[in-house]
Prior knowledge:
Layout: H1 2-18, E1 43-50, E2 53-60, H2 68-77, H3 81-85, E3 100-103, E4 109-112, H4 122-134, E5 143-145
Parallel strand pairs: 4-5
Antiparallel strand pairs: 1-2, 3-4
Helix pairs in contact: 2-4
Amino acid sequence: MNIRRVLAAGLVSLAAVTGCGVRPSDAIPAGDPPSGPVAPTTTITLYLVRDGRLSAVTRPGGGRILLQANTLGLLAAGPTARERASGFTTDVPPEASPFAVTLLSGGHRSVTPSTPAGTLSALAVGQIVCTAAATTPEGPDRITVVGAERHPDLRDCPE
Length: 159
């Protein structure tokens, strides 16, 4: 009696698999493949210190756009392991973050660190100014670090 049940179950299974209603077909046309330029990868430009001088470093942006204040926070976080291995450092102390960035008239921007700007080194102020300028696509007229004694010229930012 068990053999009949096993055979019956096998036949039912075989019928279900072979008669599932899917029929072979040719390829179905779907139109042309996508074409055109590929969207550029977003990169972030930071100014770190190498051999006592400012130097531009680019990092992948991961497809997202960071706010200017968040990008400045990367300075306070310091260089990545790869950047450190290449001799890069930062003069911006961790306590300088978070930063507040204010857009003023005429493209002027002011940056306020969380630490008194008067305690920042000239290199740290330069890092902040040049990085803030690099994150401003329309090219700001002037960037001021509020409370800093030195106000570097944007032309001092290396490329």
